Amino acid sequence: QVRLVESGGGLVQAGGSLRLSCAASGTIFSLYDMGWYRQAPGEQRELVATISRGGTTNYADFVKGRFAISRDYAKKVAYLQMNRLKAEDTGVYYCKMFTTPSGSEYWGQGTQVTVSS
User: Fold this and answer.
1) CA distances from 91 to 38, 44, 100 (A)
2) Does an H or E element contain 61, and which?
3) What's the rounded Cα separation, in Å, for the pair 50 and 104?
4) C-alpha to C-alpha distance for 37 and 28, rounded to whole angstroms
5) String of DSSP letters for 62-96
6) How many CB atoms are located within 10 Å of the residue 80 CB?
7) Using CB atoms within 10 A of its CB, is residue 95 exposed (0-12), middle (13-18) or buried (19+)?
8) In the prediction, which pLDDT does 11 show?
9) Percentage of the chain exceeding pLDDT 90
10) Residues paired with 114 in a beta bridge
11) Structure confidence at residue 83 (pLDDT)
């Protein structure tokens, strides 16, 4: 059974940093691409960043230069380092494990990030 567990969210002041973690279990981590998404209250879920099986990264424009996605194959963990946080970064952050083009995907339960201005 595939399971993704996010952690690391919390309350931080604007300008601060957080590091989110997504621990995967129940499958072969190295076969999947990983992504972080977020959803603000009343908004649709949106892509924040992805990292491929080979380590290629991709970022939404609104986080470029501030956030960094990475993964540790040995620990089966994906990370999202978030720096220079803004109030508009507030939301629930979700981890996704997926394959392309087959379309298999798994989601974590989310972790709340609140940035106070």
Assistant:
1) 6, 11, 27
2) none
3) 15
4) 21
5) GGTTTEEEEEETTTTEEEEEE-S--GGG-EEEEEE
6) 27
7) buried
8) 98
9) 91
10) 11
11) 98
3-state secondary structure (DSSP) of residue 30: helix
**pLDDT one-digit tens code per residue, 88-97:** 999 999 999 9
Rounded Cα gap, residues 105 and 62, in angstroms: 24
Residue 54's CB: how many other CB atoms inside 10 A? 7
Burial 61-75 (b: 16+ CB within 10 A, else e): eebeeebbbebeeee
| Mean pLDDT across the chain | 96
Do the Cβ atoms of 93 and 110 come closer than 8 Å?
yes
pLDDT of 102 higher than 80: no
